[in-house]
Amino acid sequence: MKQTVDVIVIGAGIVGAACAYYAARAGLTVAVVDRAGPVAGTTGAGEGNLLVSDKSPGPELDLALLSTGLWRDLAAQLPQGIEYEAKGGVVVAADETQWAALRSAAARQAAAGVTTREVPAQRLRDLEPHLAPGLAGAVHYPQDAQVQPALAASRLLHAAIGSGAVLHPGEPVTQVVVTPRGRIDGVRTPRRELRSPAVVNAAGPWSARIAELAGTTLPVMPRRGFVLVTEPLPRVVRHKVYAAAYLADVTSDSAALHTSPVIEGTPAGPVLIGSSRERTGFDRSLSTAALRRMALDATALFPVLAEVSVLRAYHGFRPYLPDHLPAIGPDPRVPGLHHACGHEGAGIGLAPGTGLLLAQALRGEEPAVDLAPFRPDRFPTPSPPA
Amino acid sequence: MPRDPAGLVRSRPQPAISIDYAGSTLPALPGQSIAAALWAAGVLSWRTTRDGRRPRGAFCGIGVCFDCLITVNGRPNQRACLVPARDGDTVTPQEGHGRADLAR
């Protein structure tokens, strides 16, 4: 069975869903293929962070600011709820050194269009009554927000389907079909052949494999992270609260285990406790070392959590690219191949901007944000084994 | 003689202890779970749900369903079907998550 569409999106996570949504609304015929189903990978293992606070001025912040506005629109437009909460973020500094660094980082972000508010130590408890004493200060970022990622991706896919997109769950891509002249011609799954002049690689941490199937390379690697889930509580954590040390962890290149506290309440009651980062391939085993460190980090920031039970933990794989920027847009090495992957831990937040920019690129329009920093061919080609 | 479970298995329990439930003193046999002691006293519901404040008590009785959560000596979210009653325990009906004290 052969079907022809304008674009095939590989991956039904949040990024694939956003690509399908904006492409379908731009009038393109879309097929979404996923080896499992919607939100079966990284999206289903995230916290739903829509952050501008953790980004330095530059292309990723531009994309985050674009996406922040788009999420606000989507929350109003999508017919069913996605638990969008414009709760704001609070980055806390443990000591005077961190406080000085945090303030100067915030000043640079403010110059780039981010709303920032300095919160001196004596005002911290007005913002977050349960914060530990002795912190040096914090910066409040009112633009930080949250969605429930599984709901958000499902609603986006549903809306894309309403605009004519077709979803093929449970179908791994076994072949990316390329014409003799090297152009994309479609994909094959065990159940069908789909023809299209455009394929979008939105396979998250598995995107390197799709690039390989298309005859090229993209060095996306999995970076494992855990989240602890507490028993339901009243609102003891009001914002997305994280330690300034988190910023250093996110930008580190180390494969070893890093943890730094990222704490937030949810509308359902449980508090979510992150974060950990380590590069261990696709190892799904539970790391008690990571969980113990995260729990200690969290209780240092919010001592009240020491008396609270953790009900469960979950984990997933962030799609990591070596320069911490996603790959977005056409791949000049394989005409017709597009990438929308490598967002690491920021994929939920950056998804709508990514989807919008990709839809613009697919229609040959000028993208709203310059795609040059996100070029998928910016990495050195690995030399073939000797 | 009433055919209660203790009689059926010919158990010879130690003397009853007592627990405080919502201000009244209830007897409990040593080793009996709090849920069993409450049932024996005719109390079938001791928690209300977070949404809708619907009544809850023992459902599975084997520690799996978490329906029977109760506050024991000030600690919320204890499974009444698993926690043994101890002499002098103060057992409090639980509203919702039982953590209202943390709301500030």
UniProtKB/TrEMBL annotation, chain A:
SUPFAM superfamilies, per the entry: FAD-linked reductases, C-terminal domain, FAD/NAD(P)-binding domain
Show the InterPro entries listed in the entry: FAD-dep_OxRdtase (IPR006076), FAD/NAD-bd_sf (IPR036188)
Question: What Pfam families does this protein's entry cite?
Answer: DAO
Alphabetized, the UniProt keywords read: Membrane, Oxidoreductase, Transmembrane, Transmembrane helix
| Domain (FAD dependent oxidoreductase): residue spans on this chain | 6-360
Gene Ontology, cellular component aspect: cytoplasm
Q: Which GO terms describe its molecular function?
A: oxidoreductase activity
Q: Does the keyword tRNA processing apply?
A: no
Q: Which residue spans traverse the membrane?
A: 7-24
Q: Which domain of life is it from?
A: Bacteria
Which PANTHER family does UniProt cross-reference here?
A: FAD-DEPENDENT OXIDOREDUCTASE DOMAIN-CONTAINING PROTEIN 1 (PTHR13847:SF287), SARCOSINE DEHYDROGENASE-RELATED (PTHR13847)
Name of this protein: FAD-binding oxidoreductase
Automatic annotation (TrEMBL), chain B:
Q: Which domain of life is it from?
A: Bacteria
- InterPro entries in the record, alphabetically? 2Fe-2S-bd_N, 2Fe-2S_ferredoxin-like_sf
Q: Matching Pfam families, A to Z? A: Fer2_4
Q: Name one GO molecular function term.
A: iron-sulfur cluster binding
UniProt feature coiled coil, ranges? none
Q: Which keywords are on file for this protein?
A: Oxidoreductase
Supply the name of the protein.
Answer: (2Fe-2S)-binding protein
At the highest ranks, the source species' classification is: Bacteria, Bacillati, Actinomycetota, Actinomycetes, Kitasatosporales
